[in-house]
Design goal:
Layout: E1 5-9, H1 18-31, E2 36-40, H2 46-49, H3 54-63, H4 67-72, E3 82-83, E4 89-92, H5 101-106, H6 114-125, E5 130-134, H7 141-148, E6 152-158, H8 161-164, H9 167-180, E7 185-192, H10 199-209, H11 225-232, H12 237-240, H13 245-262
Parallel strand pairs: 1-5, 1-6, 2-4, 2-5, 6-7
Antiparallel strand pairs: 3-4
Helix pairs in contact: 1-13
The structure holds adenosine-5'-triphosphate and magnesium ion.
Magnesium ion binds next to helix 1.
C-alpha cells in the first residue's frame, strides 16, 4: 500500500470552510516538514486562488494545464502538477470547465474511479506524504470520485443553523460511497467560522459532539479577518500573518489530523 495518505475535504453546504481549511492544513503540514499535493476539485478555483493570484489561476484554465483536462482525457495527474511559492506544497489547479465534469464522466467505464486511477502514478512515486482534495458544495458523481480516491474525509462545518442542515444527507452519501469504496474513513468534523460570543455556537458544538460514530475535532477555527486578508493576497494565513489566531488554530487542527491519520 502507498504511504501517501489522501484526505478530502467535503460538505455539500456551500461556504462551510472547505477550501480555506484544505489550503491552510496543507500549508501547516509543510511547516511540519511534510510534502503535500493539493487538488483543486472545484470550478470556483478557490484552492488555486489560495496560492496564486487571479491572472495566474486563469492562466492554468486557458493553458489546459489543469484537473479538467486530466480527468476528461484520463491522463496521469503527475503531468499536471505545479509548484506553489511554498516549499513542500504543490497543486493541481482547477478549471472553470469543471462545471461540466459530471457530463464528461457519464459515459466512462467505472466512472466513480477515474480520479483514483489518474492519481495512481502520483502515489506510486512516493513523493508526497499527503494528498489533500478540495470538493465543490455538491453531492454527485464528481464528489463520489473524490471520495473514492480518498483514504480519509474531513468535514468542515460552519457553526450556524443552516450549517448543520443537510449534514445527515452528507453522511448518507458517504454511506453510499462506502458501498463501493469500503476503506474510506470519516476522520472528523471541524468547526469553522466559530463565534464563541453567540449562544448558538455552543448549541452547535453540543449537537456535533452528540453525533454517533463521528468525531468532532478539539480545535475550532474561529472567525478571523486575517483569513480574508490572506486570501486577498493569495496566501495561506500562516504565511500572511504567522502570529494570527487562525494561523495558530490551523496549526493545531493540522496536528490533530496528522495524529489521527498516523494511527
Ligand atoms: N475562520 C474564518 N474567519 C473568517 N472568514 C472565514 C473563515 N473561514 C472561511 N472564511 C470565509 O468564508 C467564506 C467561505 O469559506 P470557504 O470558501 O473556505 O468555504 P467553502 O466551503 O470552500 O465554500 P464553497 O462551498 O463555495 O466551496 C470565504 O469567503 C472565506 O474567506
Ligand atoms: Mg470551496
Amino acid at each position: 500500500m502507498s504511504k501517501t495518505k489522501t484526505i478530502c475535504f467535503a460538505n455539500n453546504k456551500g461556504g462551510s470552510g472547505k477550501s480555506t481549511t484544505c489550503a491552510n492544513v496543507a500549508y501547516q503540514m509543510s511547516q511540519e516538514g511534510k510534502r503535500v499535493l493539493l487538488i483543486d476539485g472545484d470550478m470556483q478555483l478557490n484552492l488555486t486562488l489560495s496560492f496564486f493570484p487571479e491572472d495566474e489561476a486563469l492562466g492554468f484554465v486557458q493553458s489546459g494545464n489543469n484537473l479538467y483536462t486530466a480527468i476528461k482525457d484520463q491522463k496521469s495527474l503527475a503531468d499536471f502538477i505545479v509548484h506553489t511559492p511554498y516549499e513542500g506544497v504543490d497543486l493541481i489547479p482547477s478549471s472553470t470547465l469543471m462545471s461540466s465534469i459530471e457530463y464528461e464522466l457519464f459515459t466512462k467505464w467505472q466512472r466513480e474511479f477515474i480520479l483514483r486511477k489518474c492519481l495512481e502514478p502520483v502515489k506510486a512515486t512516493g513523493v508526497y506524504d499527503y494528498i489533500l482534495i478540495d470538493s465543490p458544495p455538491t453531492l454527485g458523481g464528481w464528489v463520489m470520485n473524490i471520495m473514492c480516491a480518498s483514504d480519509y474525509l474531513v468535514v468542515p462545518v460552519e457553526a450556524s443553523p443552516w450549517g448543520l442542515f443537510g449534514l445527515a444527507n452528507m453522511f448518507d452519501f458517504v454511506g453510499q460511497v462506502r458501498g463501493i469504496a469500503p476503506t474510506l474513513k470519516v476522520l472528523g468534523v471541524a468547526i469553522t467560522k466559530a463565534d464563541e460570543r453567540k449562544n448558538y455556537f455552543h448549541q452547535t458544538v453540543e449537537t456535533l459532539r452528540s453525533l454517533e460514530d463521528v468525531k468532532l475535532f478539539e480545535t475550532f477555527i474561529r472567525i478571523d479577518s486575517s483569513i480574508e486578508w490572506a486570501q486577498d493576497n493569495s496566501k495561506p494565513v500562516g504565511a500572511y500573518k504567522r502570529s494570527s489566531r487562525s494561523a495558530k488554530e490551523y496549526a493545531q487542527l493540522t496536528k490533530e489530523i496528522m495524529n489521527d491519520v498516523s494511527r
